[in-house]
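This part of the workshop introduces the protein records we will be handling. A learned vocabulary of local backbone shapes supplies the integers on the structure line. Getting from the letters to the tokens is the skill we practise here. As an example, a complete record with its sequence and its structure tokens follows.
=====
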Amino acid sequence: MKVWPEPAKLKKDQIAKIQQLEKELDVVLVAFQKPTSFADLSPEQLKKVQNLEKELGLTLLAMK
């Protein structure tokens, strides 16, 4: 079973550039192999995702 989106296969120079930007922005960046977009959730759907995040102690990304 293939999970989509899959993490990007990065070269050392690409990793270095991403790490540099992470430090500059003080964020964690996640690179995916294929272009992705966030799902356009209704307020009700978003609330369901947020409730599950809280219940599980995780961060979830809804993607299409």
In short: DSSP finds two helices and no strands in the chain.
